[in-house]
Amino acid sequence: MVTTTVHLMRHGEVHNPDGILYGRIPGYHLSERGHQMARRVAHHLADPTVDRDVAAVIASPLQRAQETATPVAEALGVALETDERLIEAGNHFEGMTFGVGDGSLRHPEHWRYLWNPMRPSWGEPYTEQVERMAAAVKDARDAHRGREVVLVSHQLPVWITRLSIEGRRLWHDPRKRECSLASLTSLRFDGNRFVGLSYTEPAADLLPGASATAGA
């Protein structure tokens, strides 16, 4: 069996001074800290002292993912590819602030979207996210067997993919996700069989004070 590793990378910090749940809205770009995070991961993955063989870097079409993936692809000497299946989860509250004070939850017209947190009722079902992400992982694995691939996506799709592949329930407390900005959730396969997972935070020292708004 050949071993293939698919790294699921979350993008870096986004410039979002208004605290908007930006979801799939175009135009949200990385903050300066976010660019630093992307460069840090690029250095980590291209470290010549570590035996790596990264064959491809593939990103969500959203600007923040593309900006995160660009220095990674450049450092590894590969062309940046795009896969629509890596996009952020759809969400009814996109474009709004989310909260009970001055946020969208103070308005009764939004309450009907909160009836089922297990689906969830306010956005793209967890099962649909798993389906598209799993297909992207499979295609990347099959195209680059015996090597490594970096897929740059978003917190919720990455975390849901991890829960699914580990056989855990998909509904969860968002505060307990292990998927920080610019982190790597690395899936290892022997042939087609999933054999292990590791989680690393190459930009951990840049996280204090980083915005977690929008769950990106």
In terms of topology, how is this protein built?
Layout lengths: L2 E8 L21 H14 L8 E6 L3 H14 L3 E3 L43 H18 L4 E6 L1 H11 L18 E7 L2 E8 L16
Parallel strand pairs: 1-4, 2-3, 2-4
Antiparallel strand pairs: 1-5, 5-6
Description:
This is Phosphoglycerate mutase. By secondary structure, the protein is α/β, with parallel strands linked by helices. It has one domain (3-206): Rossmann fold. The protein is 26% helix and 18% strand. A 6-stranded mixed sheet has the order 3-2-4-1-5-6, with helices on both faces. Residues 100-107 and 211-215 have low confidence and may be disordered.
Helix content: 25-40%
Domain tally: 1
CATH superfamily: Phosphoglycerate mutase-like
Structural class: alpha/beta
Query: Which regions have little confidence, pLDDT < 50, spanning 5+ residues?
Result: 100-107, 211-215
What's the total count of β strands? Answer: 6
Mean pLDDT: 88
Percentage of β-strand residues: 15-25%
CATH class: Alpha Beta
For the biggest sheet, the summary is:
6 strands, mixed
Basic shape: globular
Summed up, the helix count is 4
| Backbone CA Rg | 17 Å
SSE ordering: EHEHEHEHEE
What is the CATH architecture assignment? 3-Layer(aba) Sandwich
Please report the distance between the alpha carbons of the first and last residues.
36 Å
- Would you tell me which CATH topology applies? Rossmann fold
Q: Major sheet: order of its strands? A: 3-2-4-1-5-6
